Amino acid sequence: MEKFLDAAVLAGHDAVRLVHGKGTGALRRTVERLLREHPFVAAFRTGAPREGGGGVTVVDLREGRA
Which of 14, 40, 42, 59 gets the highest tally of CB atoms within 10 A of its CB? Predict the structure, then answer.
């Protein structure tokens, strides 16, 4: 995930969607913990119903250098 986020910033993306599925929520919690620590993450939220709902995390990125 860290390499993906770094590559997204280098490619100039403002946001990305991480598809982790719903399941028990364990993977979502791990994703959120890692996002809180990543230097290029400005904000994140659960996807809207049309974006995949609880199975997707939408990540807003800030500019930086990977």
Answer: 59
